[in-house]
Specification:
Helices cover 52% and strands 16% of the residues. The protein is α+β, with helices and mostly antiparallel strands. It has a five-stranded mixed sheet. Strand 1 and strand 2 form a beta hairpin. The chain starts with a helix and ends in a 6-residue tail after the last helix.
Length: 228
């Protein structure tokens, strides 16, 4: 690599580090900077762009399997494991923050956590976040795993588990692997049923968070019956 190229890459990476510390780094640039630490002697901008294009977004890159990552030109086994390690650390961090503070304190943390859990899943899953009286996380559990376009909801099982955990509120987290659109009619119908069952036990239904592609939708934002 010519000396001028090394100087250019060093200067570019220093600018990325400065943007990170200023809180101005985009998600794509974060991936690029991460790859720069894993592959220090290469220009990783083209690699970062190709990964985002191949998987459909930064969060989907993190949720790709090691085998899927290694299949990408320019990604070796060590780099793939490094990406998965960072994903696990980020997930633990988001979950820890939700245990330390109410979920409404910074809903960006909640939404990013949901992306980390469900972005790039190839079948629909339904997760339940059980919250205490302060709306802090008690437990995150997989409720059901379905097909590419459906998953099952068991309202009585949700209620039973909430009572076991002494939860005062519940968040459902769901994904749409085949669409980047918001809530389906099935989502609305099943949510209303869960709300009814929980209400009879004086347990609040806080929200349904939907991960569709890399978009995150909050049902509380769109449908007033969630809040009332």
């Amino acid at each position: 690599m010519p000396d001028t190229d090394e100087k250019f890459y060093a200067g570019h990476r220093e600018r990325l580090r400065a943007k990170l510390l200023d809180g101005k780094l985009t998600d794509n640039e974060k991936l690029e900077l991460l790859l720069a630490y894993a592959i220090p002697r290469r220009d990783v901008r083209p690699l970062a762009r190709s990964l985002v294009q191949r998987f459909g977004g930064v969060y989907k890159v993190f949720n790709a399997s090691v085998d899927e990552l290694v299949a990408c030109k320019g990604i070796g086994h060590n780099t793939a494991v490094f990406i998965k390690l960072v994903k696990e650390i980020m997930t633990v961090n988001y979950k820890g923050q939700m245990k330390d503070m109410p979920v409404f304190h910074d809903e960006k943390i909640l939404h990013n956590y949901c992306r980390m859990v469900l972005a790039n899943k190839r079948v629909e899953e339904l997760h339940l976040l059980y919250l205490d009286h302060n709306l802090q996380l008690i437990s995150d559990e997989t409720h059901s795993t379905g097909t590419f376009n459906t998953s099952l909801v068991y309202p009585r099982e949700i209620a039973r588990r909430a009572l076991e955990l002494n939860a005062r509120s519940v968040v459902m987290v769901h994904n749409h692997p085949m669409s980047d659109h918001a809530f389906s009619q099935d989502d609305l119908d099943s949510t209303q049923l869960v709300i009814s069952v929980l209400k009879s036990l004086e347990i609040e239904f806080y929200d349904l968070i939907l991960v569709a592609g890399e978009k995150v939708f909050s049902m509380r934002t769109y449908y007033p019956f969630i809040k009332g």
